[in-house]
Amino acid sequence: MTTKRTQRAALGRYGQVGKTLGELDDRLGVAKGGRSFLDKIFPDHWSFMLGEIALYSFVVLLVTGVFLTLYFIPSQAIVTYHGSYLPLDGQKMTQAFSSSVDLSFAVRGGLLMRQMHHWACDIFVGAIVVHMARVFFTGAFRKPRELNWTIGGTLLILAIVNGFLGYSLPDDLVSGTGIRIAYSILLSIPVVGSYLAFLVFGGNFPGTSIIPRFYILHVLIVPLIIIGLVTAHMALLLRQKHTQFPGEGRTENNVVGSPMFPVFMAKTTGFLFIITGITALLGAFAQVNPIWQFGPYDASRIGYAVQPDWYMGFLDGALRIWPSWSFHSFGYTIPWEVFIPAIVLPGLIFNIVFAWPAIERRFTKDHEMHNLLDRPSNRPKRTAAGVAIFSFVGMLFIASATDVIANFFHVSLNSTVWAMRILCTVVPFAAYPVTYKICRELQGVKGGGKRKTPNVVTRTEAGEYLATPSPVYVDDLHHGRDATEVPTFIATDTEEPGESGVRTVER
Amino acid sequence: MSDVNETRTPVSVAGLEEVYSHLQPSARNPQLVERIIAVNFVLGAVLFACFGWAFWINAQPWKLGATLGGGMFFAGIGLVAWGKYLMPRGPFVEERHVLANSDADRDAFAAAIVERGGDVIKRRKLLGGLLGGSLGIFGVVAMFPLLRSLGPLPKNTLDHTDWTKGSFVVDQSGRRVSVGDLAIGSIMTVFPEGTQDSDRGQAVDQTVLIRISNQDFTTQKGRESWGPSGYVAYSKLCTHLGCPVGLYEQQLQMLVCPCHQSMFNVTNGAIPQFGPAPRPLPQLPLYVDTQGFLRSQRDYHVPVGPGFWERH
């Protein structure tokens, strides 16, 4: 004990940690920035966790994905299967498929990793969508955060694209049909379609290049871009600081919440573990994409009720319900029946997403900085527009299950398709006024946002009635809270805080 | 932890509690919460150990997932609870700094670009233009080896299949199909002989052979000789997105595409009756040779599969 104390004295006040940091600071000058990083304040709200779900499921994707690359062989060479899954014994298949089956059954922990990877992807895209909805409906995309909104939208596209690429790699009967559809969608592009399809596939479908090409895109190029954009997304978040909901002590010019170290770090690291845990439990108990049941891809065979992953659903739905209008004249064909639902429509949706901050500014003429979030009900028009767009995409998603719906409810496929066509057209236009009305109503409800100040009606002795506006509620007044101290020691049994390096965070 | 506290004198928190209330844990009963967190961490540790053991003995995948996932879950719950209930409840406040710099700083930045750039580049417009032009040409040219080497040009390969005059109709295993092979109402996937094992054969030449009746069958005017002995053959590629039209509704005499539910009436030249497919499935003209084998009269009269720009 005594020796320890002597050592500490020799090292200085903060022991080995202080010494190491000192050495580091000599060389890199990290002390000041490091301290202010640890003091960084993160506002607390459950909805700020949605982006974290996306980030951490991406971490799970990277780790499980690296495991899978060790065993997956991205080759379309034909082999005869003699592995441990006996029902497929003797079948001819590509090496991509046989190695996918092998890594599921012959590699220790392989099936778990594959299922975790697939589940993490479904969660990743889902979390991005929900996070994006939060950012949209609370107005967090407004100045100064338009750039981060654009990065986020790009990340959603990349996540969907990489999900599709990865889903295609095992070369099973279902994913192979998905690749076939992707090829036909490329073909449908006017003028350059057939050239584009041939360049991407290295010739006519299927060829032998598409799995290796999808592989390098899936494991290197797209993930690199995603990592770069995620880094930029985080860097902008740190630079611009997180938005917060209005409340006591919260203003446009401060951030109220928990410090980075240790409170936020503990919570967010714990959350990473929880996401990983839930993904692993899903991988353990919920079977996903059982490729060995689908069998290897064979261009002339097809499984019944072919369904892509959920995030491709809106595209599939659009392809199902779009009418068969093909243009054919002067010796040329424009396959509108594919080009519009598969290329024009998603292009339009994402362009609205990217342009939204500018669109909204055009109407509101609002060029101010916004660090306080809106309650959705206080922005009835934006909220109504958002609900309209979401309900449109949601209807397309439901339309991707027309055959399942027809079977389940015993209605004809024809009427199901027509019902979905009508719903996709009508629901967004109905959703707008309904949402708008609900928002306006909510504004008048206590606890539901910006309230109308009620009138207090009094009767004078003469029998005259007077209506006077009642006083403003206490919590409608937002007083600024003074900057409080982030202390060095935060245990309750600490030294006198005043002496031990308490500092006011004011940068 | 212990030797850090050792050097300090713990002070009574009684007086500080009011002033530094934001430093207090938010749990009403910290001891209880601490115990609950401890239980979570112990569960996590035990499950992680079980995971190691399960991996070692190569247990079933669900056991690996349950132990790994459970361990992560409990460790995570413990850590989140630690942060949420036992660490200072706050709230702490931080000022936002204004991101925008002063007008002078902005001007200086803009001046550097405009004035220096103006001096050095603008005066030599010719050089700048030439450099830009040459790099632009390089950029375009550099794209070509990359793009061009990716694949062959389509030429007219999309217009033709491998069915030619006199191709034998064979099944997936390469066996020639003769006129007595199919019962009425049954269906078979066929290829031109020699292509049944190739990629292109599978993807492009695949044809669905249906026996509709005993007599020669005419699906459309002008196709009187195409369906000998009730055999009709259509391209199996859906004209919507190229999925194999793999389902045959025998009662309705419809071919159904499982991808997007286009339906084609086989007795009527496979005209689409329903769904997003814009065109009928091309029909392959057949004949029966002297030995009773089914053969094709020639290639399909139109390109098979989904639409594309150059499709006539």
Structure description:
The complex is a heterodimer of chains A (507) and B (312). Chain A contains 17 helices and ten strands. In chain A, a hairpin with a 5-residue loop joins strand 7 and strand 8 (465-469). Chain A has two domains: 2-37, no CATH class; 40-374, Up-down Bundle (Cytochrome Bc1 Complex, Chain C). By secondary structure, chain A is mainly α. In chain A, strands 1-4 form a two-stranded antiparallel sheet. Chain A has a two-stranded antiparallel ribbon with strand order 2-3. Chain A has a two-stranded antiparallel ribbon with strand order 5-6. Chain B is of the alpha+beta class and 312 residues long. Chain B folds into three domains: 12-86; 106-148; 169-296, Rieske [2Fe-2S] iron-sulphur domain (Rieske Iron-sulfur Protein, 3-layer Sandwich). Chain B has seven helices and twelve strands. In chain B, the strands form three sheets. In chain B, strands 2-3-4-5-10 form a five-stranded antiparallel beta sheet. In chain B, strands 6-7-8-9 form a four-stranded antiparallel beta sheet, with no helix packed on it. Chain B has a two-stranded antiparallel sheet with strand order 11-12. In chain B, strand 6 (247-249) and strand 7 form a beta hairpin. The longest helix of chain B has 27 residues, at 30-56. Residues 1-18 of chain B have low confidence and may be disordered.
